[in-house]
Amino acid sequence: MDASQAIQHEHKKNWYDRTYKLQILLPLAVLVFCVIYLGQFYVNNGDIIYKDVSITGGTTITVFKTVDIAALRQSLSPEFPDIEVRALSDFRTGEQRGFFVETSANVDLVKAALEKQLGLVLTQDNSSIEFTGSALSSSFYQQLRLAVIIAFVLMAVVVFIIFRTLVPSLAVILAAFADIVMTIVVVDIYNIQLSTAGIVALLMLIGYSVDTDILLTSRVLRGREGTVNQRIFGAFKTGIMMTLTAIAAVAVSYILTSSYSETLRQMFTILLIGLGFDIFNTWITNASLIKWYAEAKKL
Amino acid sequence: MKISWRIWLLILVLILSLLAIRPSFESGVVIKSVERTSPLFEQGLRAGEIIKEINGEKINNLEDYARVINSTFTTEDEVRFEVATKKNQYIALLNTTPDMVIQNVPKTRLKTGLDIQGGARALVKPEQNITDAQLQDLIEVSNNRFNVFGISDVKIRGVSDLSGNKFMLVEVAGATPTDLKDLIAKQGKFEARVGNATVFVGGNQDITSVCRNDATCAGVTGCFPTQGGYLCNFAFTLYLSEEAAQRHADITKNVDIDFTTGGQYLKENLTLVLDEINVDTLLISKDLKGKVTTQISIQGSGTGATQQDAFNDAKASMHKLQTVLITGSLPYKLEIVKLDTISPLLGAQFVYILFLAGGLAILAVGIIILVRYRKIKESFAVLFTSFSEIVIILGVAALIGWNLDLPSIAGILATIGTGVDQQIVILDEARRGRDVSLKEKMKRAIFIVVSAYATSIVSLLPLYWAGAGLFKGFAITTIIGITAGVLISRPAFADIIKKIEGQ
Fold first, then answer.
1. Which chain B residues are closer than 8 Å to A226 by Cβ?
2. CB A249 to CB B365 under 8 A?
3. Fold match between B29-104 and B119-186+335-342?
4. Nearest CB to B421: which of A64, A204, A245?
5. What is the average per-residue pLDDT within A179-191?
6. Per-residue model confidence as pLDDT tens digits over B411-429
């Protein structure tokens, strides 16, 4: 490090030292907003997410035939008011390869109506049909919700075991919690109907998001060399690489697979949103808290 | 350069994984199933054998097979059909294409799930709460039913979920029969009644055998034009047990002869009821009154817009009726709570895309590492480690016979992301300040890696049980991936980095 860099670094440090307590207000404000938003959302919609047919029960039919999507939607919607019609396209050429419809209606009704509209018999050679009964899907939903909660609790327990100190552990857990809550809010804002796979992706986010938090916390608490700021900055350099590579891997997977599978598309979308918030929550939320703790404890 | 045992271990595991996946370069086509009625079956030809030659012509793939079959059966004459498999030689006289389902020899031992290769999956719930033993009974009867019906590539198993619900999961690979729904969920409670008395029911208690696939005692007997279409009748013979035959005698003994129709028949009819729906009503000839007869002709009909449709419908109805007569009814009323039929159309292309996604994701990560660290060797080490983690996941999946479905694939792709995360931790720890020994740094890196591992594992565990195990794949591949990572590939990676940095 030459002299000018050292001065810059010093300057940066001073700025960070002055503002880190204030910085915690930003994620806190966002988190409060998100919690209020979800509360409001719950009041309006009866749940904190929009659910797709894999959760409410219903039918998804994928047909490998090119059609006029808008016209099809228009002709089907009188009979099935909640119907969603979307095109499937090839990611290389952008050409339409087919389409899928989603509705909470019973499979036999939808199939018959669709066959009439298209003027062809739907078989396994030209279509895929998925049907889930409403009792089963709501029980799946409850179980997955429970799985997310159990996963979160188990993660929290492990974090406590690893660090054995209250405040740093709580900081890690808070950051993971904020990741998930903020991701759900974005999913809601974009009107994404969550599927069971989407909930699995949220669960996965728990594991993904604590990685960087653990790195940060263990560098600050267990490292002995350098100042707290240097340790945080060192962890930041490593952690941001971790998140960037993860985002790159997920983004590539998203681009390639999204036109083939709605399931993978939603999973990777949620991971991308969550990883974005992970940067925010690790390096602002968690970093400020752990610095505060380290300064107070004079580590 | 000395290679540490950790690196050796990684190499060893990689080789074992490749062996487990076992890419196959064998030519030929593999038999997925043979109809029991086929002469080739009688000769001993069974599913699983690999066909190498037919009538002296070499068969390398499905196209060869189709070409030879098409050129062999051009007329309806009987031809000599010689099949050379890897194991044996079979010769039969056939007049139509052999009743076999054929597939290219799989390139690897990796199996893809139904949601990728196509097929049908049904989750069936009994209408009442049943015990594990009862569930096993149900599975046995269902399995039998599928066998008798002639669907071989079916897997039925019991699953339960977090709330203690029990289901039967039926998975049929590849093409699925159109009447799958009936086959799975129709209870198939068959009763033959005279008046209110039950003469016999389906199943081997009352029925000793049912004539099938024999034109002398089973078949479509005739077709007639009706209003707006055609109607075809079918008839087949079934043989009753002594007990049921005696019951028939006892019941008909008390039924009077109906003289209004010329005295040919009895006043009461024999009504065939399937799942509380009348299938057919048969007149009982006066000769049968009070007689112990073990042989009964069952009749029914099918309809359709054209004669061919009606014929096919009659044949299908007969087949279904025969199936339930042989296997008896399912012990419980069932409800299909989930039914997916997935087209095999996209399968091959999709698998290619998934491999491409995996490869490009690793490559993208490699490039970012290269840009950040500007070191070729380290970047290659990262690429190699990520790649080996995927190979190990696939190897273990092949070893335990896991079907790679969409959740599993998502898990593999996600592992690339997390795996690299931990390599970066190792890389950065190694390159940090010079005042701590390399060994100490690695120890710290491993601490972080193991901690992150522990949190990931516990957060994935609940998924194993949720949703009747349909999301298990995700948990399985991810857990294999990160466990192999922590135990094998990342320690090896740490050693490789030590070597590179220590130079």
1. 433
2. yes
3. no
4. A245
5. 95
6. 888 888 778 888 888 888 8
- Going by pLDDT thresholds of 50, 70 and 90, the confidence category of residue B4 is confident
Q: Token digits for B328?
A: 């008896």
Its domain, for residue A81, covers 58-132
Q: Are strands B295-304 and B229-240 parallel, antiparallel or unpaired?
A: antiparallel
CATH no. for B5-22+347-502 = 1.20.1640.10
CA–CA separation, B404 and B397 (whole Å) = 8
Residues A24 and A122 in one domain: no
Last residue of a domain, one of A117, A132, A147: A132
Query: How close B61 comes to chain A (CA, Å)?
Result: 21
Nearest-Cα distance to chain A for B175, in Å, is: 7
Nearest residue on chain B to A241, alpha-carbon basis: B424
- Answer yes or no: is pLDDT of A177 > 80: yes
Is the residue at A2 inside a domain? no
Q: How far apart, in whole angstroms, are the C-alpha atoms of residue B178 and residue B172?
A: 12
Specify the residue for token string 């001073």: A14
Q: Looking at domain B29-104, does it have CATH number 3.40.50.300? A: no
Residues whose CB is less than 8 angstroms from the CB of residue A24 and which lie 6 or more positions away in sequence, other chains included: A284, A285, A288, A289, A292
Domain boundary among A80, A104, A132: A132
Reported ipTM: the value is 0.82
Which CATH code fits B119-186+335-342?
A: 3.30.70.3400
Pair (A284, A201) in one structural domain: yes
Number of folded domains that form chain A: 2
* Cβ-contact A98, A64 below 8 angstroms: yes
Q: What size, in residues, is chain B?
A: 503
Identify the residue with better confidence: A23 or B471: A23
Please tell me whether residues A155 and A21 are part of one structural domain: yes
Q: Examine the pLDDT at A275 and tell me if it is beyond 80.
A: yes
CA atoms of B463 and B176, how far apart (whole Å): 29
Say yes or no to pLDDT of B365 above 80: yes
Tens of pLDDT, residue by residue over B215-255, are 788 888 888 888 888 999 888 888 888 888 888 888 888 88
Q: Which residues of A touch B421 (CB under 8 A)?
A: 211-212, 242-243, 245-246
Out of A144, A261, A264, the one facing B466 most closely (by C-beta) is: A144
Looking at the fold, whether A127 and A162 belong to one and the same domain comes out as no
Contact A144 B467 (CB under 8 A): yes
Dump pLDDT digits (tens) for B66-79.
888 888 887 777 88
